[in-house]
Amino acid sequence: MKTINKLALFKILRGILLLKVDPAFLDYPAGYTPGFLDEKQLRHFARDPQNELDDGFLAEALAKGDRCYAILDGENLAAYGWYSRLPTRINPPDMLLDFDPDYVYMYKGLTNPRYRGQRLHAIGMNRALQCYMEEGVKGIISYVESTNADSLKSCFRLGYQAFGSIYLLRLFGYSLRLYSPACRRYRFALRDDPSARPDGMSARKV
Questions:
Q1: What is the pLDDT of residue 3?
Q2: How far is Cα 178 from Cα 60, in angstroms, rounded to an integer?
Q3: How far apart are alpha carbons 30 and 79 in whole angstroms?
Q4: How many Cα atoms occupy the beta-carbon half-sphere of 66 within 13 Å?
Q5: Omega before 92 cis (within 30°)?
Q6: What would the 3-class secondary structure string for the chain be?
Q7: pTM
């Protein structure tokens, strides 16, 4: 993978699902406050660069109706994760990840270094899933790049299950996408975002 990426962009996106709320990850530390943040709160926390919530990201996420489930320690943002019901930009940024709208896509999770080791990511994710299931969502859908072995192991420990893979190769201005069969079941696919694509770049998919 590293050798290929010296010559071209090559990624394997492992699709994963979380279909059940784990009761072990619903209780949160005393004094903390979990819940979805409103725009005013998000703008406030965006003032701190450590929270990685720049204006461009917030504008796009909020325009799509994406929601941020967070855990607060008083006035401090301890951890958060973003959730979307619509196709969402990934890296490379001229592509969107599409999926079955019966699921919610989880992305951009962050835990402040001061609060690591308290399972806040798992707690926030399970509480968010509980909220979405009450709205009729079947589960959380997401992906992890195949090179991120630690993240994959962490997701499996949290109850995620793998369902398929997307293979993305970009070389000399062309993009080739291959999908494992299970991706079709969940409408799990990469879409071009014309508003972000560099001039002259074309795409092919299989």
A1: 63
A2: 28
A3: 15
A4: 23
A5: yes
A6: CHHHHHHCEEEEEEEEEECCCCHHHCCCCCCEEEEECCHHHHHHHCCCHHHCCCHHHHHHHHHHCCEEEEEEECCEEEEEEEEECCCEECCCCCEEEECCCCEEEEEEEEECHHHCCCCHHHHHHHHHHHHHHHCCCCEEEEEEECCCHHHHHHHHHCCCEEEEEEEEEEECCEEEEEECCHHHHCCCEEEECCCCCCCCCEEEEC
A7: 0.90
Q: What's the pLDDT score for residue 7?
A: 66
Q: What pLDDT score was predicted for residue 22?
A: 97
Residues in the chain: 206
Among positive and negative, which fits the CA dihedral 93, 98, 99, 100? Answer: positive
Q: Which two tokens stand for residue 104?
A: 């919610």
Q: Which regions of the chain are under pLDDT 70?
A: 1-7, 196-206
